[in-house]
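Pasting two entries for a bug report.
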Amino acid sequence: MSALQENGQELPYAGGVLKLRIPFVHYRIEYQDFIQGAILSCVPLGITAAMVKVLGIPIEIAVLMVVINNFLYLLHTSFGDPSVSGWITAGIPLYISYLTGFQEGPERIKALIALQILVGAIFLVLGVTGITRWVIRHFPVSMRSGILLGAGFASLMRVFDPGEPFMGKMPISFIIASLGSFFILFSAKALRFRAKSSLFAWVAGFGIAPGFVIGYVVGLITGEIAPPAGVFDHFIIAIPLGEMLSKFSVIGIGMPSAGQWAAAISLAIVAYVLAFGDILVLEAMIDDANNSRKDEKVVFEVPRNHIITAIRNLFQGIFVPYLPLCGPQWTGGQALVVNRFKHSTPEQEPSYWGGATSIFWGMSLAMIFHPFVQIILPAKLIGFGLTLLIQGYLCVYLAFAMCTNNVQRGIAGVMGAALVSANYVKLWHSAFWSGPTMALIVGAVLFFFLEYDGSKKEEESVS
């Protein structure tokens, strides 16, 4: 595969400006990332409980919606965007609060349709015009670092919060799974073992999978994890496509009313503000991958990411209205893919695109098979907690690496704290004034008061 590309150049593609890349033609399927994705298939299924409760969607249809959403993630890596994409996760409590203000049934579904289509329209306009690319190019380093710190802290706070199930309900199995995964992914000793032992290098290539399996087994032994049940009740999941379209889409229930469109505008803007932070995290991780592997250049284009994210939101808003919305990146999955690529040789993983695409082939296909999902599902909290830990670790590490002086570090720290301390809080009875908005305001004020001096040097440093 490496023969297809010149050293340090972008992987070849078809489709002209679309940058279409086809498995087995432009890249190989990385079975280790495929297996990681299959194990993590239990994570996206966690949203089905909220979809059933808030939207009144039957569990079979909720599962089908998750599967469709997962296959649409492949649009990114198939058409030249390196994003391991996901939800606009941080806003889920805000979306639920917004939707519960509407009557349960078709009216609530229409409210979600309006929200998701408006989010898609925002991504489309900003992607086509290139406005976001200009904003990101001029975004100060200290504020980039602050968003990364806030994202990292938010993930780590969830993991270590005694009220959360990770440490509260499964401390032994989760700690063992975490230590095993962290040793494989980040330990200096592990890097030396990779170089000396082909067997260890092979095992390490599976990322969090070995730690997950060990933690699962320990959890079964200690009783922290219940044994799987109903494994062989079915082979393939139910696919009630007709019922989904007739009862939970524009085709069956019609378009939202003018009042629902108006009510969704402010929250759609908030959702984009939340997603903006994910875009900065994505850019930082791709830069990290390029700095570590000089044999391939991974190109991230903000407009491309926006347009594909817009297509997902617009399509799902019309046919598959999806509670967590469609975001530009899943930080936990992105971290796994980037970390394996960074620590692999060109022979072990010839191209970034193989890993970035394989993780979703594994996840999406696994969710179709009922027995596999039922086996993995009891340990879903271990998989979810591991992705939170890893994304927290990498976000903090990248945030510190960005800053070059103490003023930048100080601004980043205050901004990160503002993001997590104000998160999900509605100041002045408005969802707009939640943590991410407050963090951006605090960061901007500190940047202009403490760091920016208008000099040419300063302008170059933030471009």
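Entry 2 (this is the one that rendered wrong in the viewer):
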Amino acid sequence: MLTGLPNARPSAASPPARAGATGVLLSVAAVLVVVLRGAPVDGLWGRPAAIAMTLYAAVGILVLLGLRHHAPRRFGAANIITLVRAAAVAFLAGVAAIEEPPSPALRLAVTIIGFAGLALDGVDGWAARRLRLASRFGARFDMEVDALSMVAITLLLLRSGQAGAWVLAIGMLRYHFVAMGWLWPPLTRRLPDNLRRKSICVAAIVAMLIALSPWVGAPAAAAICAGALAFLVYSFTVDYLWLWHLWRSTPAADRAIPERV
């Protein structure tokens, strides 16, 4: 999902950026293995840990592929923070894969991890601006980790019995949007930066983490998640309509199929 960025071309800085990214990827992977092996969570080491590492490896491969097409000057602190967030999401996915539903204590632990990852979501953007290393690659990487975190949290909500299978729709909205872009290329046009989109995404993650906490009962959790789903559907609908209006307002002769994102 990080490959094929619009108007992206390999740059002279790509090899150093990829080399730095490879070292960081391996270092974070080693830490993730230690955490998965040492975490006091019954049933985590084994198939769930393998799922977590496979997910992290997939993220790593996509990162390296993305850097081939749109590399910043160096991988940088902001992208390292985002990578740590990706490792945390992989850990949550591993917890969701445990055979037994998560206990209240484990739900509290993953809720704390989720909020810590959300806090880092603000730190990575600040670091990119502060160090003048903001890039389209970094912005895309951050967005995809946000989307992946939603999938992991919805799986945990389902496994804990806080909501039914419908809650998975929250995590799949982003991927539905991407799939629709393959069916109708005008949807792959780059959307302008928008505070509404980011705010609703953050609010939805906060709502789901609250719903996952052990102090919230299943009926209340389902209602909270339903509200989050409604706001996300609204946000995606606005983007769909904006892109459709842009396409309609473009003269037919100028409706070139954009590069896929």
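Dev reply: Rendering is fixed now. As a check, the viewer should reflect this: The chain has one domain: 14-254.
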